[in-house]
């Protein structure tokens, strides 16, 4: 969440920058008034506690002097002071809860380098790699060719779990596993330590990364156990060091993790209902970084290159775009999307978002580090898909298909597929 001190001391600038996120955050001004009230109450509380301590000490002195009448009078006064202290503490708790209720649903401040815009139309392309695939025959969309090749069973997925669930089978399941291993192996070479986290997490873990309370409708919740299925490995991996104070020399920390991911996609009715672009259960390799404050934006650029490396090895054309203020995620201060080319749809589709969340998540998780001067600072956290496996499979099926209905397996994947060169 945002630093309350920054909000209070620079409220107009904070609101101005937040309002570029295509929403209004004028209600943040309430925090200024609440903070002033809190400051006044804390001042009153300190005076009362000081007065109570003085009177409590006097009671002991009066008892020694055997002045029991005055001692009893002071005891009554101290009891009244205790009640006044409790009343102020109750008011302070209510104010803290009011401030929290406002600020916990406010997104991160966009970095000054982020382009201002309303939606995806205002995102800016940074670079491209590879020429978009143009077949000399009519391209078959990924869902149709997957059914023809009998590698994804859409109907039985629906039979088992409902809409937006699929069953991978045969070469489809092997391709999914091959991609997972390729990605983890490549990220290991770039110093990411592999993590295998739980896929069920407690509410405070979802809260730490900003998924709760704002995005509760997108989450799968198990009421009996008060646990959530993870929407991405970012959630458990980013929380690994919550409520800890790390040493500066421990940073940076790089992690990668493969998990199934679960999202209800509550706001996506009617979008991508065919195929494997937008599933309720999907597979992903996630990258997470914990870094010093002054290094986070440089680390973001390096993370994007780590993601691009996978697509270059697979030889899938892609482009990198920087998201505008109105299209960024809740916890992000700056985000790059990597979009791969889908010739069946004749457009680029997102396969990864790489974000610098600065200290936004760390404040929610109370994750800090001690620098060389013994000063306590909040860690900066970054995350990115490295990559969303189902979408890579869709791109392979569309980019590497042949006129006879077969699909070539990218050369880098063939050793992971026991030497198989095509799906037929």
Automatic annotation (TrEMBL):
PROSITE patterns named in the record: AA_TRNA_LIGASE_II
Gene Ontology CC terms: cytoplasm
Keywords of the record: Aminoacyl-tRNA synthetase, ATP-binding, Coiled coil, Cytoplasm, Ligase, Nucleotide-binding, Protein biosynthesis
Binding-site positions, ATP: 263-265, 350-353
UniProt cross-references to InterPro entries, sorted A to Z: aa-tRNA-synt_IIb, aa-tRNA-synth_II, aa-tRNA-synth_II/BPL/LPL, Ser-tRNA-ligase_type_1, Ser-tRNA-synth_1_N, SerRS_1_N_sf, SerRS_core, tRNA-bd_arm
Signal sequence bounds: none
Subcellular localization: Cytoplasm
Plastid in keyword set: no
Molecular functions per Gene Ontology: ATP binding; serine-tRNA ligase activity
Main location per the UniProt record: cytoplasm
Gene Ontology biological-process annotations: selenocysteine biosynthetic process; seryl-tRNA aminoacylation
Family classification: Belongs to the class-II aminoacyl-tRNA synthetase family. Type-1 seryl-tRNA synthetase subfamily.
Function (record text): Catalyzes the attachment of serine to tRNA(Ser). Is also able to aminoacylate tRNA(Sec) with serine, to form the misacylated tRNA L-seryl-tRNA(Sec), which will be further converted into selenocysteinyl-tRNA(Sec).
Protein's name in the database: Serine--tRNA ligase
Organism: Spiroplasma chrysopicola DF-1
Upper taxonomic lineage: Bacteria, Bacillati, Mycoplasmatota, Mollicutes, Entomoplasmatales
Gene: serS
